[in-house]
Amino acid sequence: MTSHPNSVAAQRFPVVVVGAGPAGLTVGNILRAADVDCLVLEAETRAFIEQRPRAGVIEEWAVRGLERRGLANTLLERAQLHTECEFRFAGDRFRFSYGELTGQHHFVYPQPLLVTDLVREYADVRGGEIRFGVQDIELHDLESPRPSVSYTAAETGQRHVVECEFVAGCDGARGVTRTVLPPTTTVSRHDYGVGWLALLAEAPPSSDCVLFGIHPHGFAGHMARSPEVTRYYLECPPGDDPENWSHERVWSELQSRLCADGSPPLTEGRLIEKRVLDMHNYVVEPMTFGRLFLAGDAAHLTAPIAAKGMNLALHDAFLLGDALVAYLGEGDGSGLDGYSETCLRRVWDYQEFSQWLSEVYHGTSSGDEYRAGTTFARLRRLFTSPAAAAAFAEQYLGTASAY
After folding, report:
1. How far is the CA of 121 from the CAs of 69, 71, 368, in angstroms?
2. Which residues of the chain have pLDDT under 50?
3. Peptide bond into 216 cis (omega under 30)
4. What value does the CA radius of gyration of the chain take, rounded to a whole number of Å?
């Protein structure tokens, strides 16, 4: 066993979860519901993770997975239900009623609210151990039957060691769990070559559904977050400085890229968030290393092009939580053995759909007449072919990769 100098006596938990996002907290809640002890370690404060702006679109299969595990009560009471989206291009507007095609819908529920629900259920209701503000997390002996995790407690500066049987790496792309993967791990990456200016506006939604603006100046998106706040996206050069986008420029471009015959102007408001996201994806294979199991953004990133990231994190968490319970409670290791392969099937499905949708969003602004032509061909087919519409609806809702 690796030594841990200057640390207090080791504690023991069957599972240590690194990261208190949707994936980590869902795993923790599944374990606690089965009376399995676990420890969640989080570098940020509780107040921070409950306010951090992130995704807000959850697919119905994911909500039903949360509901079966007793984790969706507040979500089901407060979430908005969306059954349609609208594409706007060439001055026209085209409604796409995916609810009619599939009988399912999206739930719009901002990630900070879901995290708030999950951490309350885990820590306050189910009595799970969670430590916030921890620093200098290190993982030890992951290829042995007795791995351990060490960290520094923020309030005391003291070094702590936790011995465990498994580590769940749910700490995102920049977390420590990604740094310990062996050279045999494959990380596949794709750069879309565009940026998105991500905006939160203190303004009510200007439509009752998600809007996708396909425009020669670049893509624009409108997504409701609450009755008072709307998420907007504007395509921009990768690495652009948000300060290049004044209030006036932002709203001018949004009005232009999302305008369509018969639609009223967007309702404008104060911009309360403004940051540039460089559109890229990655996939880590396999999602396991010894006793370490990755989940969520630690294992894969899907750019917000198709609003899939939080859904994939929940899918990982359902599989991992259930597999850990089966092993620790019944000695059944089949779920853990098949975890990476099962997760990656959905991951690659979502990656492919994101790539397809990116061409629709960005083809007309690429400066390439060929790409622009194929973009309009895809859009025409979507609204004239029932088979194409049904296929898109399945992928958009994730029903083609049923859990």
Report:
1. 11, 8, 51
2. 1-3, 402-403
3. no
4. 22
Parallel, antiparallel, or unpaired for β 15-18 and 11-12?
unpaired
pLDDT tens, 41-69? 999 999 999 988 777 899 999 999 999 99
Which pLDDT value is given to residue 381?
A: 95
Phi and psi torsions of 310, nearest 5°: -65, -35
Count of CA atoms in the C-beta half-sphere (13 A) of 247? 7
Q: Pull the structure tokens for residue 21.
A: 């996002």
What pLDDT is stored for residue 400 in this prediction? Answer: 64
Say what the pTM is.
Answer: 0.93
The answer to whether the CB of 264 falls within 8 A of the CB of 206 is yes
Q: How confident is the model at residue 224, as a pLDDT?
A: 86
Q: Is the dihedral of CA 387, 103, 117, 204 positive or negative?
A: positive
Instruction: Report pLDDT for 52.
Output: 83
Classify 339 as helix, strand or coil. Answer: helix
- φ/ψ of 51, rounded to 5, equals -120, -10
Give backbone dihedrals phi and psi of 161, rounded to 5 degrees, phi first.
Answer: -125, 135
What pLDDT score was predicted for residue 403? Answer: 43
270 contacts: CB under 8 Å, gap ≥ 6: 201, 202, 203, 247
CA dihedral (243, 275, 363, 188) positive or negative: positive
Closest alpha carbon to 39 in 125, 135, 149, 133:
149
Tokens 């189910």 locate to 126
With residue 319 as reference, give the H or E element that holds it.
helix 309-330
- Angle (CA) 273-110-257 rounded to 5° is 55
Q: What is the pLDDT of residues 317-359, one digit of tens each?
A: 999 999 999 999 999 999 999 999 999 999 999 999 999 999 9
- Amino acid sitting at position 384: T
Q: Between vectors from CA 273 to CA 60 and to CA 253, what angle results, nearest 5°?
A: 90
